Amino acid sequence: MCGLVGIVSNQPVNQEIYNALTILQHRGQDAAGIVTWNNNGLHARKRNGLVRDAFHHRHMLQLAGNVGMGHVRYPTAGGSQPSEAQPFYVNSPYGICLAHNGNLTNYEQLAEHLIKVDRRHLNTKSDSEVLLNVFAHEMHNRANGKPSPQQVFDSVKALHKRCSGGYAVVLMIIGYGIVAFRDPNGIRPLIFGRRKSGDVFDYMVASESVALNALQFEIVDDVAPGETVIFENNGYMHRQKYSGKTKFSPCIFEFVYFARPDSIIDGLSVYKARLRMGEQLAGKIVREWPEHDIDVVIPIPDTSRTAAGQVAYHLGVKYREGFIKNRYIGRTFIMPGQDERSESVRQKLNPIELEFRDKDVLLVDDSIVRGTTSKQIIKLAREAGANKVYFASAAPRVQYPNVYGIDMPAVNELIASKKSDVEIEKSIGADKLIYQDLNGLIRSVKHGDSHVTQFDTSCFSGEYVTNDVSKKYLKKLEEDRNDLQKSLRKKEFNENIDIFSDSEEPGKVAVIYKTF
Fold first, then answer.
1. DSSP track, 147-172
2. What's 219's DSSP letter?
3. Does residue 86 carry a pLDDT above 50?
4. Distance of CA 421 to CAs 76, 81, 252, 284, 426, Å?
5. Is 90 exceeded by the pLDDT of residue 96?
6. What is the pLDDT of residues 166-207, one digit of tens each?
7. CA 321, 327, 332, 334 torsion-angle sign
8. What pLDDT digit, counting tens, does each position of 440-487 carry?
9. Which active-site residues does the annotation give?
10. Is residue 81 a contact partner of residue 492, using CB atoms and an 8 Å limit?
11. d(CA 14, CA 34)
């Protein structure tokens, strides 16, 4: 999962892109990048690490221009190498920068075709670079002077026919503007808004509505499945719906874990969805365990707080904050290796003993993926003096790989893929384990008047909306992205930490293209 932002404005955009990326930091903590453009050229800064570490005052001064884009990376395809930080850039035609959230399921076929047939060079193993080159190739085939809306629309339409998977894309065509589009299934989120600036509008597109809210942009709409939206540098906006086949299926895991609770995705409130997850979970507990002896409900901060509060309310028991979170430790689910995930739990969470001592405690988490974090948290609760420790997941059993941009591809690393509820209960050390039902999760996210009729639930159901995910593909994915491979990529990353060499001018922002 990654975070995207693009802004076309009548004033410098460097600070607003930085602010937006900081707001979207929860979507990726591996790397950050900003690219801006003015008449002096294209200015880029990309580094591994958090936004606050990648950009200092001297870098911001050099990121000049009234149009730009940014990205925070969470690695899936490719890896964590510094060279794979986004946005990516190609100089032909026009000069194009691209940032991408999601994952292409036909990456290898596309990469081979680009190299052998389209005669384009790839520098990395990133599917984002493949997306960029597919778009650039289609634009090149239609190039006739300066870019036009129809040329862009036709190029994206051709891209949709070639690319499969989940992808939300923000790209910048040098001297022309920002382009945003989304895969025909609408799996990954993308939303845009505008802000009055004199007699014209500034435009902004981002992965989540909360970034637009914070920068005081009025929300206009979500980018529809397959739709293309163009924001020209001169203030004009163009939209075109996709004329091909669509099957609107936004990722339900966005609502479970990734998105901020104050975001609205495809017209659906993440906060309200999590409230209803708690209601559905409490209903299941009442049905299946009416004589429960729960003294207190304690959330695993932060994502599960909303659901846990509703569980406590509907069960009629106390809700307490039993864990204090160190906010300077990254999210364990998106850490690259098993050892790091295990080691970080004690650094991240510290129990308040008085909330656990001699009590029968129900811990509520948003989901259980590998089970490692759950096991460590239950151990912390017992060490703090809990009498019994029950564990509830606001999401159903995660037992299948996600291939559309969430890093849970290795089946043998998913605890629910090979164990029953009773076996998981024993493995993580809980006295009782309760999972949300999939139908309950869907009811939680979807409200009655929503235009969303189905979701991508592949990690729970094993049903893939692109219909091209074979056992052979999943096996190859598991081989490429298991914890061992992540450890090897981390070693490679540590040996080559910088993207651009800072040896001559520390902190220099690269100027990599001049306007046409």
1. --HHHHHHHHHHHHHH--EEEEEEEE
2. E
3. yes
4. 28, 37, 22, 15, 9
5. yes
6. 999 999 999 999 999 999 999 999 999 999 998 899 999 999
7. positive
8. 999 999 987 788 999 999 999 999 999 999 999 998 888 877 655 555
9. 2
10. yes
11. 8
